[in-house]
Amino acid sequence: MRSLSLPYFIIGGGFNVLVGDGGFRGVAISLKELNGMESPSRGRIRAEAGATNQHLVNYATDKELTGLEFLSCIPGTVGGALSVNAGAHGRSMMEQVETLITMRDGRICENEGRKRNFGYRYLELEAGEIVVAAVFSLSEGKAEAIGEKLESYRRHRLESQKIGYPNAGSFFKNPEGRQAWRLIDEAGFRGFQVGGALVSQIHTNFLVNRGGASAADFITLAGMIKQKVLERNGIVLQEEVRILGEFEQK
Q: What are the catalytic residues?
């Protein structure tokens, strides 16, 4: 693509992507077939970027390895989760990574996970660097305890995120020390709608498609939320959803 000067983006499961109504004028590269998984030694799992998060959780559970149970709450692929250091329940992907394997300029690079710059919903990648796999270092656990933790996370997800409409998950990142859903709720946006895009009544950090929503509906709604929260709290909300392509804002 570079030799042809074509813009491109890497897509995993596409769960946290909002593409403009005008589409993306370039190439979408799916890593779906890059989905291998193995345990090179006790306590370690090597997972490729296209494997689903649930596959990784199931594999670790079968091996009686603990540390990735939180990932069962997060749809999508391993590569996508790594690229944004996805997390839940106070845990995150990069905390468990022993080796991060990426590709840049056609070369495969291996780096110690702890030496990479990462933080809340953030992994620093060089321009053009693509996550292709990772080796996770996990602790041995008991199948019963792992199963109980998975069930606890499943119940929590059903209770707090039973949204009922298509969505891309949490739309905004939590500002340091604050909760995005609470800021949005306090700004009066619960149930607020623009076109087909609605702030969920169940969880206000979920912007859902009630039917027929355009990408512009979501961008307009998100912009209104950001402006109001800035005015009330002096906080600039940052999107957790990846936004790309061409938009025509209402």
A: 121, 170, 240
